[in-house]
Amino acid sequence: MKAVSAEEAIAMIPNGATVMVGGFMGVGTPDRLLDELVRQQKSDLMLICNDAALPGKGIGKLIDAALVSRMTASHIGLNPKVHQQMMANRIVVDLIPQGTLAERIRAGGCGLGGVLTQTGVGTSVEQGKQKIEVGGKTYLLETALHADFALVHAFLADYSGNLSYALTARNFNPLMAMAADTVIVTTEHIVPTGVIAPDHVVTPGPLVDYLIANG
To answer: Which of 46, 123, 183, 205 has the fewest Cβ atoms surrounding its Cβ within 10 A?
Structure first.
């Protein structure tokens, strides 16, 4: 794990990268990194995230700046700018049921090829997907999701990169920290190694590549 500035971290992300962004309607979202993505105008991004948040908030900042070419998410309903860009063919949106999205990310982090789910069987969701019969029931094979980079926000980090999260701000962050080649973390507080009790560590340090220095 290496401590770097937000500017240095985002400079490593090329245009067109696949990027997972933690958060749920802006809660637990690494805003410092999103602001830097906008400042550096990293474009043609392929995002994997839970939602599009709101204009000017969370993921919405990237939408406002028209930096996203594709979004894989479970909800976009509160951000009209996504709808506008979809209708103008400026962004492709893959909508996935939230539980399926979480499991596909988890599968990517655990080295699995995918997961089986009954969600979407008999609906338009099953189009183009493999069906598998198990125990007399039909499941859809949903393939694992993986990214080049994961942008994660934690409440506490120690000098070794161990992370702990605050309440619902935990959401997708730990899953995404497992499912990307490079993990970049912002945090509310950085503390000496040992301050976070071992049983309070949610994301262990070996998963973290870069920690954004506070101050």
So the answer is: 123
| Structural domain includes residue 116 | no
Domain with 61 in it: what CATH number? 3.40.1080.10
* Residues 43-81 pLDDT 10s: 999 999 999 999 999 999 999 999 999 999 999 999 999
d(CA 23, CA 118) in angstroms, rounded, equals 26
Is 47:53 a contact under the CB 8 Å cutoff?
no
- Quote the number of domains for the chain: 1
Establish if 121 belongs to a structural domain: no
Instruction: Enumerate residue ranges in the chain where pLDDT < 70.
Output: 215
Cα–Cα distances in angstroms (integers) from residue 40 to residues 45, 64, 111, 181, 194, in the given order: 13, 14, 32, 21, 36
Domain contains 129: no
Q: Is the pTM of this model over 0.70?
A: yes
